[in-house]
């Protein structure tokens, strides 16, 4: 039986928020608050061959499963370790061939079901919160979310019913999918590229704040929670559930849509950064409020379409969205300053297209415009800021701009040593890149 509790913290009832996590001792900046192994996880299909399915290690000389030839591993130990979960998919992938296409969420839920069947005790991922205690918010779901839930359940039955005997009934599956959708995590690398999806019960215990005092990073399939502010005994420990670039109205909209609550954190009640985030040019004839709202709405739609195109790696659609982005960027540029968050996001999407098309100079040009405003709009020790400096630094080095590359990498490193910890392999990689330039 695993020891209940996480040293230095306690579960408590947070006023107006339900369950939460509170510090019972002082945590210094950059200190590891706790680590949590994944209860269940799955590598995203796009990273197969680049990362080990079992431990998520990034290597070039992985070897593949002899049966399905689609799962890759570091060694025989990793393959054996992954077999209890991979066997769910191995035979099916062989049988379905190209028609094997369950979503990442469906794959994760299938693994959660199997883990629940073989786990009789509290797991090391559940020292403070059990997975079955997750909120599902079924009563708050709209018809669109309910339809998506039912589509996932149908896919689970279609792809897994031959391999998982006696799947839970419809009501239990509806609740489980809702729990995973609301409490699941995406595992990302040092440049914030998506590696996979996972469930970390103890990490899910933390409530949200738009001014968080901890940050979650990943070491393989283990989540690490580190302090990005001094935390005193008795203070609640807050994580951020969303991208914090956007103004209050947008953040609240996203939190309500995905997590079913209206944020009342200090950042949302004071709206202290909103003016800078939505800065407009000083014009002789100021734009109407409706014109600004219309432009923001259009930008959001372009951003959402780009996200979908990028997810499916549809190059034609990416190019179309890139063209739309440039039109939107030009239109918005007549009113918004380059530091406006919607201008920044359009530039970020354009940078992504440049990277995908291997237009390194174009990507560098966009990165240079983005990185400084990011440092202003995001909280200190933001992974988004570190990631941008990292991308920019690596672009500089690739373009033989050595001094600029080293300077950018050092700025990334300053954030990463706090957010990831000084002993993280990503930190070691960046240090090695800097050392190689001497």
TrEMBL record:
SET domain span: 7-242
Iron-sulfur recorded as keyword: no
Keywords: Chromatin regulator, Cytoplasm, Metal-binding, Methyltransferase, Nucleus, S-adenosyl-L-methionine, Transcription, Transcription regulation, Transferase, Zinc, Zinc-finger
Enzyme type, top EC level: transferase
Organism of origin: Anabas testudineus (Climbing perch)
SUPFAM superfamilies the UniProt entry points to: SET domain
Job of this protein: Protein-lysine N-methyltransferase that methylates both histones and non-histone proteins, including p53/TP53 and RB1. Specifically trimethylates histone H3 'Lys-4' (H3K4me3) in vivo. The activity requires interaction with HSP90alpha. Shows even higher methyltransferase activity on p53/TP53. Monomethylates 'Lys-370' of p53/TP53, leading to decreased DNA-binding activity and subsequent transcriptional regulation activity of p53/TP53. Monomethylates RB1 at 'Lys-860'.
Taxonomic lineage from the root: Eukaryota, Metazoa, Chordata, Craniata, Vertebrata
Compartments reported by the entry: Cytoplasm, Cytosol; Nucleus
Protein name listed in UniProt: [histone H3]-lysine(4) N-trimethyltransferase
Keyword set includes Manganese: no
Any one of the GO BP annotations: methylation
Start and end residues of each MYND-type domain: 52-90
Catalytic activity: L-lysyl(4)-[histone H3] + 3 S-adenosyl-L-methionine = N(6),N(6),N(6)-trimethyl-L-lysyl(4)-[histone H3] + 3 S-adenosyl-L-homocysteine + 3 H(+); L-lysyl-[protein] + S-adenosyl-L-methionine = N(6)-methyl-L-lysyl-[protein] + S-adenosyl-L-homocysteine + H(+)
Signal peptide range: none
């Amino acid at each position: 039986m695993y020891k209940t509790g996480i040293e230095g913290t306690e579960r408590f009832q947070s006023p107006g928020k339900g369950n939460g996590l509170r510090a019972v001792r002082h945590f210094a900046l950059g200190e590891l608050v706790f680590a949590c192994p994944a209860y269940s996880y799955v590598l995203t299909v796009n990273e197969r061959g680049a990362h080990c399915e079992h431990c998520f290690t990034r290597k070039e000389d992985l070897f593949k499963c002899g049966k399905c030839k689609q799962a890759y591993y570091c060694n025989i130990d990793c393959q054996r370790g992954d077999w209890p979960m991979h066997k769910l998919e191995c035979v099916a992938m062989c049988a379905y061939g190209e028609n094997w296409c369950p979503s990442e969420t469906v794959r994760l839920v299938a693994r959660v079901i199997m883990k629940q069947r073989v786990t009789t005790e509290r797991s090391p991922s559940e020292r403070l919160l059990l997975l079955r205690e997750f909120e599902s918010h079924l009563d708050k779901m709209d018809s669109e979310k309910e339809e998506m839930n039912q589509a996932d359940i149908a896919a689970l039955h279609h792809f897994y019913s031959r391999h998982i005997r006696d799947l839970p009934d419809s009501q239990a599956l509806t609740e489980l999918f809702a729990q995973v959708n609301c409490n699941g995590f995406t595992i990302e690398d040092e440049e914030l590229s998506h590696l996979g999806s996972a469930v970390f019960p103890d990490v899910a215990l933390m409530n949200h704040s738009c001014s968080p005092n901890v940050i979650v990073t990943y070491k393989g399939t283990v989540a690490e929670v580190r302090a990005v502010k001094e935390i005193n005994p008795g203070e609640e420990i807050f994580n951020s559930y969303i991208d914090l670039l956007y103004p209050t109205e947008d953040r609240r909209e996203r939190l309500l849509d995905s997590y079913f609550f209206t944020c009342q954190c200090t950042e949302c009640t004071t709206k202290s950064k909103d003016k800078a985030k939505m800065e407009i040019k000083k014009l002789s004839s100021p734009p109407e409020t409706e014109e600004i709202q219309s432009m923001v709405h259009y930008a959001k739609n372009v951003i959402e379409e780009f996200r979908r195109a990028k997810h499916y790696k549809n190059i034609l659609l990416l190019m179309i969205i890139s063209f739309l982005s440039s039109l939107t960027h030009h239109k918005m540029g007549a009113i918004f300053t380059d530091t406006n968050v919607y201008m920044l996001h359009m530039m970020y999407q354009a940078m992504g297209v440049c990277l995908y098309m291997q237009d390194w100079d174009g990507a560098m040009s966009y990165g240079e415009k983005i990185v400084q405003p990011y440092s202003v709009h995001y909280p200190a020790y933001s992974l988004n800021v570190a990631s941008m400096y990292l991308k920019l630094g690596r672009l500089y080095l690739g373009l033989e701009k050595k001094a600029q590359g080293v300077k950018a990498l050092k700025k990334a490193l300053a954030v990463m040593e706090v957010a990831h910890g000084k002993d993280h392999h990503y930190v070691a990689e960046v240090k090695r890149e800097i050392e190689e330039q001497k």
